[in-house]
Amino acid sequence: MNKKLKTMIIDYDKWQEIFHTLKKNKVRTGLTAFGVLWGIFMLMVMLGAGKGLENAVYSGMGDFATNSMFIWSQATTIPYKGFPRNRWYRFELDDMYAIKRNIPEIEIITPTVHGGGWQVTSTLIYGDQKGNFRVEGIMPEENKVDPVDIFKGRYINDLDELNRRKVALLGHRVYEELFKKDEEPVNTYVKINGIYFQVIGVYKSKHTGGWGEEQNSIVFIPFGTTEQIYNYPDIVDHFSIVGKPFANIDKIQDEVMTILAKRHSVHPNDKGAFGYNNVGKEFRKVKGLFMGIRGLIWLVGIGTLLAGVIGVSNIMLIIINERTQEFGIKRAMGATPFKIISSVISESVFLTSVAGLLGMAFGIYVVELVNKAVGSSNSNEIMFMNPEVDFRVAIAALIVLIIFGIFAGIIPAKRAVSIKPIEAIRSEN
Fold it and tell me: Are 308 and 38 in contact (CB under 8 A)?
């Protein structure tokens, strides 16, 4: 079999015959090849577009811990233990330790408190520059939940929190508005509501679009310092929670609510008393969405490709009918069925492979052009990022195309072999 395959590959007469047949009717060959070319071109473009959309969505999330959730207190909606509905309450720092003790599936839990209240800004002054920005008290573990890039200096550390130091980590937009271009901010002092804070660094958000812009406008100071400066004894505005790998964040959420409800005399069924954002659940939705998109792209792409290959098979049948006498003469002169079959299948595979390679190259080229165009855009709202086609996916598509080419040649090849030499020689075309 290997010897026959080798002979089939290096049979120059056969390849000359294939080229002659294809060149004999250039328009027909070109239109047939175009069907395959267009199919794989569209597959490459759709795969690149799908990846670009996926990259943009995940870029917007930055390096956010995907198996995470956030929870904050809201007004109660059910009367309980003598307390009326619409009662406001606040989380406390001791809640964090209670949650840690009772839910071993939690890897990280860290508190945040907003200086002055939710969405309330504080006045920052540096020299003759002034601005109003949000101030948030955080612990060092926050950078493991929603990491930022340190542009200058360092992040808040354990000693800052332990000693309740008056230090500040500025968002990049805060730095741009208070400091001159290229001015070194580290170890300078800014006033926050009339109190001097030493600047320890400047960070840049890893998120894109409005999310990133909003985060770049926040000033981080140690959690304990915020409590002291704003007179919030052990008050927590929200908890950031990350589950251990493979832990069920939905189950953790329910357990956290149960503990907090018990500690703050909230009705066990009063889910409205808690505000929460289950990032793990949303991430699974996004992941499932893109899996569906990829599946749809392959379904449409393979369907388009299959339509082109069916066109090749039909054209091959027409060619076989036109070459009936030729195949009859070959059979009469001793050509084996294998040689006839290999000739027809080689013609089919050659046509589909060449058209497929051209379509693939053109598709990847268009994807790269789009990538450069998107990369040169200065828009902050990025809905499309780094469209690309995975090399392994491209190879897989080419293999599928070759398999289709073989199947496209099987029916015409069987037709060619079934021709009886005597009847073929006598036939008139």
Answer: yes
Q: Report CA dihedral (18, 19, 20, 26) to the nearest 10 degrees.
A: 120
| Residue ranges with strand state E in 223-266 | 235-236, 238-243
DSSP code at position 230: T
Q: Which of 238, 226, 235, 260 lies closest to 103 in space, CA to CA?
A: 260
Q: Give the C-alpha distances (Å, rounded to integers) separating 363 from 13, 80, 388.
A: 34, 64, 10
Which amino acid, residue 118? Answer: W
What's the rounded Cα separation, in Å, for the pair 30 and 22? Answer: 9
How far is residue 230's CA from residue 228's CA, in Å, rounded to a whole number?
6
DSSP-assigned beta bridge partners for residue 349: none
- Helices in 11-92 by DSSP H: which ranges? 12-24, 26-60
Nearest of 141, 140, 198, 204 to residue 176 by alpha carbon: 204
Q: Using an 8 Å Cβ cutoff, are 314 and 386 in contact? A: no
Exposed / middle / buried, residue 104 (Cβ in 10 Å: 0-12, 13-18, 19+): exposed
CA distance 279 to 271: 18
Alpha carbons 429 and 421: distance in angstroms, whole number: 15
CA 74/CA 132 separation, integer angstroms: 26
Closest CA to 281 of 332, 324, 241, 225: 241
pLDDT in tens, the chain (429 residues): 455 544 444 556 656 666 666 666 677 677 777 877 888 888 888 888 888 887 777 766 667 778 899 999 999 999 999 899 999 999 999 999 999 999 999 999 999 999 877 778 899 999 899 999 999 999 999 999 999 999 999 999 999 999 999 999 999 999 999 999 889 999 999 999 889 999 999 999 988 777 788 999 999 999 999 988 888 888 999 999 999 988 999 999 999 999 999 999 999 999 999 999 998 888 888 888 888 888 888 888 778 777 777 777 777 666 666 666 666 666 666 666 667 667 777 777 777 788 888 888 888 888 888 888 776 665 555 666 777 887 787 788 778 877 877 777 776 666 666 666 555 555 554
